[in-house]
Amino acid sequence: MSRHFVQTEGRRWVEQGIITPEQHQQIMELYGEKKRAAGLLPLLGGLLVGLGILSFTAANWQGMPQLMRLLLLIAVMAGCYGAGEALSKKGHSKTGIAFIGLGLLSFGAGIVLTAQMFHLEAYDATSWIVWGCAGLLSTFLYRSRFLFTISAALFTAAQLYSVTEFHQFSYAAFAIGLVGLGGYVWRRQDSYQVWQFSLSFIAQSVMLVAVHDWKFLWTAVPVMALYTLGDALPNRKAFHPLQTAVLAAVFLFDWFVVLFMGKGDFLAVRHDWLPAAAPFLAVMALLLLASVVLKLRSGRGITAIEWLLVPVLLYVGHAVDAIYVIVLFVFSLYVLWRGYAEEWRLKINLGTVLFLIGTMTAYGKLTWDFMDKSLFFVVGGALLLAVGWLLNRRKREFFRNGKEGTDHAR
What we know:
Layout: H1 3-15, H2 21-29, H3 36-60, H4 66-89, H5 93-117, H6 126-142, H7 145-166, H8 171-188, H9 191-211, H10 220-232, H11 236-260, H12 265-273, H13 277-297, H14 320-342, H15 345-367, H16 373-401
Helix pairs in contact: 1-2, 3-5, 4-5, 5-6, 6-7, 6-8, 7-8, 7-9, 8-9, 9-11, 10-11, 10-13, 11-14, 14-15, 15-16
């Protein structure tokens, strides 16, 4: 619960006589002002300084002797790391981490510039992997979200570089990132970092399938394996982004199917998308079985409905766009229902958004071809406003008569 919510709702509680003004003030004191924005300023400032240094160095690089170039790279990197360590020890953790981040960026820039200076040619993503390992080491030493973010981005970028430049999947980058980032996430159990780890894993899974020219639906195997792992982990509060990120990715894929696949379109892409049915469906069935067993053990059997999003119904081969319109509606209603059952405002808001997306998608599929385009947007806008108003009214009534629950990790 945020301080802003307590402040605004508390006034209404005082007016209704639920609490006294003194009690309202005491409750307010329990929610101190958050200074996240102020804490971000040193980090953003550090990034800007780093970009300025890099741009200045690049502009004057060719006019410097090689020895001066090397000394400059070493001096900038050592200076940033040294300043970051000194500031961190003195209690200026945000500014210190900003300088550590500068040192990490300088290290990567040094790799690139040194390779250019001595005309070294890369044949794989090793330089990016080394850079990512330096980020991992810094992350473990300083236990920083900011450095973790940079490290996750570096390993994802290493994989992207390997795939786009050398047309090969870097199993080294994937394994080191999986063990290093995953190990850090397991130790810290921070949901923000779990989000980043999950998104990096999903992106690299897509790259793995794409670079080997496998049928696209094979992407669902590692992605749903990550989802199943989320059922096995005990700390639901910290690790729920593992499954949330997967569901978001699969929902977007299903939405893509609804928007761009219809009539004969499916036959045109079937060859590129669908692997042989027997092995693929067998693997998915095993993952589903494992997930359901784990859900039942933890008393979360109802959440097995989430597997409805998995695009195995593409094998039906007919009217897949209509099938997935229904899937999107069912899933959005499920999210809404779970939000009200758990008294979780965030999930209610998410379910509302998903329901509106499903409504407008279905409306567009049904009416775009034969309705006048001006009338299409007018009617669509009116429908969106009406549905949104009804859902928001239901939400306000719900929270006016009750309170938001606290156990949202089910």
